[in-house]
Backbone:
């Protein structure tokens, strides 16, 4: 068991708005070791991107109210000064954004933007910086890196741009890499290349990775641990194999049965999760998932008024549901597993 | 008789070089030589990477884009060049559901007006009046009919896609081209919309051309599947045949790249290197050869023929992977 490298403890991110308080993240805790990958899964509005922005300190000087603790090694990121945070950001921790076209500056060449990522943190000559950048562009699989260095983002294709973003994030060998839907906008063929790339870079640098995605297939490919979010809260947190083979929360079940799968026989009919994702201004009382939950009747407690705690159901496997654990295991094996 | 016959369909977009004198350059061959037929009540899935021409093909079939070449026969009638009143009448029979549920609904119109638009445009009085018909449609697609006067921004992505479906089925068409109808939706919502599309198809004997890049979704909903690459057809086969015995190396590469929600599964992955070549300057011979793991000199010289290798299983490849005869 390695050392916990990142520890997030009771993180809250709230946004006051005219319509009320939006609790985008509401009491989230997890930790991460070096060389491992945490997959955060959830639908739009579940708070997964807001979490990553909080770790990077990108809610500072906004309206967001952030509380809790985020420990990176022995530094609480929520308490340090801006200056100190800036020296960590991009060097010790880095982020890959979902949309590389809007995350890059259209007026500057790709090379210039990557060079800046180095010179902000290190005193190096221009020629050295260029060498490092060209080398990194080559390592992420961009052909002709020396020529590409002087091109603008619009001259790159989607996959190439995403590689350039990854190169920018990795240029200072960060120990923590947060990837927010890095492959969502890409074709499967390019996605496979990018995932392979991230895996091999992790082997090389031993970075810790947080992979934020809504695609369970991507999670199964790359993650060691899985955290499922719903309505700003963690509803299930487990090691990869457990999360897929013994999922323990009705929402996770719903995600699994609603997905057509290439590796199984074709189902006659998909089993969707009923209803719509909750509005964060008006999160349903009690368990946020209860209006969409197909298994409420098995709960001994009123799901619409009592908020379930995140409790350990199995070793290293937490979930947030009132239904007793043995009952959930039975429901899963009898009703859900045959549909998968 | 088939409902839709598309023969050798082509759509080229002209390009211009920016020299002193504006001159037409090589056209972008977005769709080049697409041929298929579709029976009533059938679903044809069209897959391929972005830029392969699948959306252009869908739009050209509905005459939202003017075809450069080829013929489109709908219900036994050549509709390739019809216009005016004839084209408007075609729209009663052939409709479209768009990818972006945010961009395809006018934000200034209440959804009642959006769903009623087909009746108004086609000047059709449904029995019981337009409002009644719209509310029935809303109910059919799982929306609350009381929300008739609400505006698109008040709905979530999945609900908006339902509005798009209601509008498309308003005139009881025979064909709907669905262009990535679920790719903008959350996983838990995707299944709702897919089930809705399947139910409506069963009720009304609708035919779908279902364009998507998600191979698992396409397998779920399609009877037959067409694989496109750089504007050309690579493989066309029945669903089972295509997914169980893909013959074209591109199809096999696509399938092997799909991430499967099964941890630690080891499987052969055919990694395609590089990106899609420019459709303005496609490779000689087989357009896929620059990324193909089994390409030879022949592939650069000769365009592979579109051959039927097994019944209903057609491939454009010099070296298709054919089942071994024992």
Residues:
């Amino acid at each position: 068991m390695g050392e916990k490298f990142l520890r997030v403890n009771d993180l809250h991110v709230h946004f006051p708005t005219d319509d009320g308080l939006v609790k985008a993240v509401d009491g989230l805790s997890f930790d991460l070791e070096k060389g491992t990958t945490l997959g955060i899964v959830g639908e739009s509005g579940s708070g997964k991107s807001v979490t990553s922005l909080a770790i990077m300190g990108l809610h500072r000087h906004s309206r967001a109210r952030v509380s809790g603790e985020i420990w990176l090694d022995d530094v609480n990121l929520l308490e340090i000064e801006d200056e100190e945070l800036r020296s960590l950001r991009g060097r010790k921790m880095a982020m890959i954004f979902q949309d590389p076209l809007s995350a890059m500056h259209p007026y500057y060449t790709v090379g210039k933007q990557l060079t800046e990522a180095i010179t902000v943190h290190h005193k190096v000559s221009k020629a050295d910086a260029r060498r490092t950048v060209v080398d990194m562009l080559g390592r992420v699989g961009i052909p002709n890196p020396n020529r590409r260095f002087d091109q603008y983002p619009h001259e790159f294709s989607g996959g190439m741009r995403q590689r350039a973003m990854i190169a920018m994030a990795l240029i200072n060998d960060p120990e923590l890499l947060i990837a927010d839907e890095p492959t969502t906008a890409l074709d499967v063929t390019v996605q496979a290349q990018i995932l392979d790339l991230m895996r091999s870079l992790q082997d090389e640098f031993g970075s810790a990775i947080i992979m934020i995605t809504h695609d369970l297939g991507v999670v199964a490919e790359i993650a060691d641990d899985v955290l499922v979010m719903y309505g700003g809260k963690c509803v299930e947190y487990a090691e990869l194999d457990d999360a897929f083979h013994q999922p323990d929360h009705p929402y996770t079940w719903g995600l699994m049965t609603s997905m057509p799968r290439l590796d199984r026989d074709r189902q006659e009919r998909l089993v969707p999760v009923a209803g719509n994702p909750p509005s964060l201004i008006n999160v349903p009382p009690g368990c946020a998932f209860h209006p969409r939950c197909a298994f409420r009747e098995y709960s001994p407690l009123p799901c619409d008024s009592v908020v379930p705690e995140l409790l350990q159901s199995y070793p290293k496997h937490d979930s947030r549901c009132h239904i007793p654990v043995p009952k959930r295991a039975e429901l899963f094996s009898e009703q859900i597993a045959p549909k998968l | 008789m088939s409902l839709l016959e598309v023969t050798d369909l082509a759509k080229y977009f002209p390009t211009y070089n920016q020299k002193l004198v504006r001159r037409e350059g090589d056209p972008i061959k977005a769709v080049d030589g697409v041929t298929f037929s579709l029976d009533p009540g059938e679903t044809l899935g069209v897959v391929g990477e972005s830029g392969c021409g699948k959306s252009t093909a869908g739009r050209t079939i509905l005459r939202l884009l003017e075809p450069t070449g080829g013929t489109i026969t709908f219900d036994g009638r050549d509709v390739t060049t019809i216009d005016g009143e004839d084209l408007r009448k075609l729209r009663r029979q052939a409709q479209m559901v768009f990818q972006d549920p945010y961009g395809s609904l006018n934000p200034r119109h209440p959804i009642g007006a959006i769903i009623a638009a087909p009746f108004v445009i086609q000047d059709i009085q449904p029995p019981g009046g337009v409002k009644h018909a719209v509310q029935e449609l809303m109910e059919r697609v799982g929306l609350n009919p009381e929300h008739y006067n609400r505006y698109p921004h008040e709905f979530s992505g999945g609900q908006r896609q339902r509005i798009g479906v209601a509008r498309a089925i308003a005139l009881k068409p025979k064909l709907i081209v669905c262009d990535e109808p679920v790719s903008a939706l959350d996983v838990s919502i995707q299944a709702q919309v897919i089930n809705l599309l399947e139910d409506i198809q069963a009720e009304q004997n609708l035919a779908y051309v279902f364009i998507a890049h998600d191979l698992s979704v396409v397998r779920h909903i399609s009877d037959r599947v067409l694989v496109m690459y750089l504007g050309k057809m690579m493989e066309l086969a029945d669903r089972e045949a295509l997914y169980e015995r893909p013959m074209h190396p591109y199809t096999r590469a696509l399938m092997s790249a799909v991430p499967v929600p099964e941890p630690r599964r080891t499987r052969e992955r055919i990694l395609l290197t590089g990106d899609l070549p420019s459709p303005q300057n496609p490779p000689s011979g087989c357009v896929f050869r620059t990324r193909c793991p089994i390409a030879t000199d022949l592939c650069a010289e000769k365009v592979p023929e579109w051959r039927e290798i097994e019944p209903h299983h057609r491939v454009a490849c010099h070296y298709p992977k054919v089942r071994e005869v024992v």
Q: What stands out?
A: Chain B has a mean pLDDT of 91. DSSP finds ten helices and 14 strands in chain B. Chain B touches chain A through 44 residues (CB under 8 Å). The domain at 4-229 of chain B is CATH 3.40.50.300 (Rossmann fold).
